[in-house]
Structures
1.
Amino acid sequence: MHFISAVPYGKVVSYKEIVIGMGVANSFMRVIPQYLQKTNPEQYPIHRVVDTKGQLLPHYIPSQIDALRAEGIAVVLVDSIEPHSYQLDLQRYGWRGNS
């Protein structure tokens, strides 16, 4: 969770970057959403975690959209087979642990 705590205000991190930052195998990406769901959002900025395409995780982090918008991150509704699918520009807002 230290890696997630280091994500700066106004930036996000993808599952892939978490796995790289933690130095664990890529297979751990599958468990990150469930782990976030069990994490206290008041202790860690879990709202700053997105999938590898920049899509939000409202099923796991209910207040994610509002929290990201409060930090000035542009979140848009995307055309998807899933209802209420939101995404952000990962190139613009993504953080790799060194920026």
Note: Strands lie at 13-14, 49-50, 76-77, 86-87.
2.
Amino acid sequence: MFDNTNLFRWATSELSQDAFICWLLSWADSSCASKDLKMHNAGKIFVNYLLELSKENPISSENIVVKKQLDSADIVAEIGKNLILLIEDKTDTAEHGNQLDRYKTAIQARYPSQKILPIFCKTGNQSNYKKAKKSGYNLLLRRDFLNVLIKIKESGLENNIFNDFLSLLDFREKETQSFLHLHPNDWSRYSWQGFFSLFKKFFRILIGDMLPMHKADLWELGGISGLGLAGKPTCK
């Protein structure tokens, strides 16, 4: 349950999400098996999911070194001697400028002999991921993240920090999908985002090439200025 006792009810910044990812990745290091086997296995499940996204073979026992804000990149994880996970982590903000290309170039320069595996992690909602894909990043979106955390939970893990973050993602996903069962008058901005995400191919003229969401305020729906409306739409 996502309530006032959940750590991430108060730790709301992107840095808090960075910290959770770094924490979970760190448990995959082979030295952690003797500290807490279930947490170690949880870390390995997560790492192996990211490797699968990158079309790499899973690990069984590897040294893993996690670094934060290396050359301005959110998260870098050295997987053994040959692989580098580069994770750009976002909650509700989007990538800007050429930051994804810059990070990839910087990390490749730092690790010239290793293979860089770029991951774009986004737990908020976003209209499209064209930039990330064009820059060669594989996507770890909220639903994917949630699914891998559920898989870890089903492996038998009981950990308060883990459970709190799982509850946070579950809450955000349910909020986004709430348009499916709520009356439109009761939709939050996340409900509207879920609605437009599902039907975006039908609204491509509005939210795509002609009227980007960030200019029309359509995505945030705090006021649909680009459509000449004010406030949240009301259905009668």
Note: The first strand starts at residue 64 and ends at 70.
3.
Amino acid sequence: MEYLGRALGHVVLNGKCRLMAANQRHQDESVKTMFPRIRRALVVDDAKPMRELIRIALGSFHCRDVIEVEDGTLAFGAANIVSLEDGDLTDGSTDIVFLDWMMPMLDGIACTKLIRSGGLDGFNADVPIVMVTARTEDECERTALDAGVTVFVRKPVSLRSLSAGIAEALTKTPQKVLV
């Protein structure tokens, strides 16, 4: 329970999230077209407010389909959900994955290793993975990057740091830590 309390303390909640989302929508449209379009994102975090904040950040990248789960064990089945909202998404491919490190059952490092191993339906082994975590120790960063995380984002986060993490992951530049 202590972890959940800490995690919630790192997230901007309720009304502030909505206000930040409105401000995010008014950003320069040219920035939105600089990166590849995200059709589907998978967000795996046991804290619902964190999943909501990531969803808001993904909106500025025109993400059309965000699948949210609270545990790593649910991530692999969720990646194969087919969205028929507008008829365009016909497969279970995932364009970007967000993982928390500390989750019950299957943590973010184990999920990363499974994705990078290849052969999982709904995942290209090279899919960008953004780890958003309260683990701030340098050795944790190295462990995550060594496991295959594309971008390591430390909590507390803002829409700006999440958007920067998404942009970094989409351009597949060298692995970087954002604070």
Note: Residues 1-33, 82-90, 173-177 have pLDDT under 50 and may be disordered.
